[in-house]
Amino acid sequence: MSELLPNYVAGRWQAGTGPGTPLLDPVLGTELARVSSAGLDLEAAYAHAREQGGAALRALTYAQRAGLLAAVADVLKANRDRYFDIALANSGTTRRDSAVDIDGALFTLGQYARWGAALGDARWMVDGEAVPLAKDGSFRSRHVLVPTRGLALFINAFNFPAWGLWEKAAPALLSGVPVIAKPATATAWLAQAMVADVIAAGVLPSGALSIVCGSAQGLLSPLQPFDVVSFTGSADTAATIRSHDAVVRRSVRVNIEADSLNSALLLPDAQPGSPAFDLLVDEVVREMTVKSGQKCTAIRRVFVPAASYAAAGQAIAARLAQVTVGNPRNEAVRMGALASRQQWESVRAGIAELRRHAEVLHDGAATPLVDADPAVAACVGPTLLGAADGTASAVHDVEVFGPVATLLPYGDLPDAMRQVRLGQGSLVASLYTGDAGLAARTALDLADSHGRLHVVTPEVGATHSGHGNVMPMSLHGGPGRAGGGEELGGLRALQFYHRRAAIQGAGAVLDGLNPSGGA
């Protein structure tokens, strides 16, 4: 039996009981390690985080907490090469795709360290100007944001074990809130290794960072009213979290990022062969193949004018035909595996469901895998579907979390807007056009149903950050089926970990409020 990875809670490493759950290489099928959270005293773990970690973090200024983030980033950078080895083995990703996760985490940590340093020696934040409550101005009100005196529980998805941890942890720790991380079991090794390195370096106060690997059973029960939960995963699990007593009766604050049928929209001015048309093709292919399509922001639906449907299908399919799939240890491989054989089964079932409603424009299953046994490896070739009549309602309801997208024609721009909104709220939609004015109007029209609008015009063709790349400067989250949550967006992310209060009193009282004086 392979090594049982320990959990770090209550300020010490603790092994779960029982045989544990195996972590597998999704290409070779070999066992890498095991995890178990059985038998952990979560009440004690959470109490230690609140009482020790929270108190120690709140005693620091934002700038000092920013220094902790910078120190964490330095530790992770020193071990970066090993993380790529772990990602290759446990996530089956190419080095390029592993970089999206690992380097994305480092970039986000560094960015929040810089932002935090600029906040200086304050320990809480002023929210707006003081306003008079009495006619003569003697009695006034001022809103403040102070760190919550609870913990932050992160329940993360399998696709980004590095970035998924640190994009949440960076604003939480900067806010002065201790973190309990629960990575998805299938790919937990990378998150556990990163936490282990940070703990070994001793750069954080005891209780500031904990990790639980294994089952999520019992994680929510010890939560108290001032704790917060941030979840990334399926809508079904999100519904379970929202209905838990901790949320319903104890008002634990929850942030959800769930399913999302994201869109790419070619605007009517962009004809086949135009720069905007080519940019759409490039981005669709990239989003279908990076991380094997296992991104919550990946393009799932591609909308083009009806007259461009055939040309778009041919152009995208031709590019997908050049994608090599298989063992990422082979340098010729461009796209590696899905996270697990279970995920492979889910994607295959999803493709079969969509094929009942759409034609196949490119069948990735027809291309042999490179250096991988199809009976073992969790590899799926990119699949482009098309619904030429535009009536396939299933493509607006079924998300296949893999290298799969569906091409859809529209009649006019109002018809395109209607179809895009059939996704019932998404994390991101990208627009492709040569007309900046049309792009601005369309982006605003879609802003009510998306967390982010990514506009690609020819002048930013070489510099835009990518449809699916989540940058810490911009909001990550979306309404409706996307979960209704908000993460990142610069210092906006800190608000989730703070409590807003109105302090009312005489001018001398409000003038005496000192952000450097503690909370």
Overview of the molecule:
Helix 9 crosses helix 10. The protein is α/β, with parallel strands linked by helices and about 525 residues long. Helix 5 links the parallel strand 8 and strand 9. Helix content is about 35%, strand content about 20%. It has a 7-stranded mixed sheet with strand order 15-16-17-14-13-18-19, sandwiched between helices. Strands 10-9-8-11-12 form a 5-stranded parallel sheet, with helices on both faces. The longest helix has 25 residues.
In short:
The protein is built from 14 helices and 22 strands.
Q: What labels would you give this structure?
A:
single chain; alpha/beta; seven-stranded mixed sheet; 22 strands; globular
Element layout with pairings:
Elements: E1 4-5, E2 7-9, E3 12-14, E4 21-24, E5 31-35, H1 42-58, H2 62-78, H3 80-91, H4 95-119, E6 125-132, E7 139-147, E8 152-155, H5 163-175, E9 179-182, H6 188-201, E10 209-211, E11 228-232, H7 235-242, H8 245-248, E12 253-257, E13 262-266, H9 275-289, E14 299-305, H10 309-320, H11 341-355, E15 359-362, E16 383-386, E17 404-410, H12 413-421, E18 426-432, H13 436-446, E19 450-456, E20 475-476, E21 487-488, E22 498-506, H14 507-511
Parallel strand pairs: 1-5, 8-9, 8-11, 9-10, 11-12, 13-14, 13-18, 14-17, 16-17, 18-19
Antiparallel strand pairs: 2-3, 4-5, 6-7, 7-22, 15-16, 20-21
